[in-house]
Amino acid sequence: MSFTHILKAVQQSVRSSGKTFLPVQQAGVLLFTRRAGAVIPGLSVRGSEAPVSALSCLCQTRRRFSVHVILRNKEEKHRSVSAYQSPKVSSAQKVKDAGRDFTYLIVVLIGLGVTGGLLYVVFQELFSSTSPNKVYSRAFDKVRSHPEVIGAFGEPIKCYGETTRRGRRQQVSHVEYVKDGLKHMRLKFYIEGSEPGLKGTVHSESKENLETGKYEFRYVFVEIDTYPRRTIVVEDNR
């Protein structure tokens, strides 16, 4: 087989396609048949099945070949050019993507709303002067500093709330209601001191002060769990 005929056939095919030619500095030809291969300076031939009509001038049987040409000139020796065209997005795909983004936005907004609500509740419980925990803390401060309570229970005095199912004593029993247009709150919790086996129940009621927005105690008293029962009045503003 004459390799010169191969080169001429390839050149004629390229010229007939109307493409622009660049100076070729380096190229190679690698030709594979079903039995053997050969290398020809100038072009690189390898790879895939070609129809008989494409190289009718070369052979009568089908051969595996592909053409790979490297074109370089002196000015563009170290320069490479690549082109990429992104596929066009259909209208249906755009609508689908927009719906998905909108769903994500709704989920994020709901999450932010829930988080904001939880933070508000926590702030109200821990820092608001009208929260049950704040009123409970103020009532206990009055009880543990009262001389008669200290004398009856001994120091130190500790307090706790209602016992939960898990055995914890952190839940403070309280009732909030409105009377004469003012908010009221009743609390009940328990205290113990250094006296063994002696316990007490603290009752308090407070109402809202419209000027300050805070709760003011109407009364605070301690019931000692003895027989007969004894009551220590800590504060009475009724």
Automatic annotation (TrEMBL):
Alphabetic keyword roster: Membrane, Mitochondrion, Mitochondrion inner membrane, Protein transport, Transit peptide, Translocation, Transmembrane, Transmembrane helix, Transport
GO annotation, biological process: protein import into mitochondrial matrix
Superkingdom in the source lineage: Eukaryota
Transmembrane parts of this sequence: 102-123
Membrane topology designation: Single-pass membrane protein
Keyword Protein transport: yes
Location (main, coarse): mitochondrion
GO cellular component: TIM23 mitochondrial import inner membrane translocase complex
Signal peptide: none
Pfam families reported in the protein's UniProt record: TIM21
Subcellular location: Mitochondrion inner membrane; Mitochondrion membrane
Keyword DNA repair on entry: no
Family: Belongs to the TIM21 family.
Function per UniProt: Essential component of the TIM23 complex, a complex that mediates the translocation of transit peptide-containing proteins across the mitochondrial inner membrane.
Quaternary structure, from the entry: Component of the TIM23 complex.
Protein's recorded name: Mitochondrial import inner membrane translocase subunit Tim21
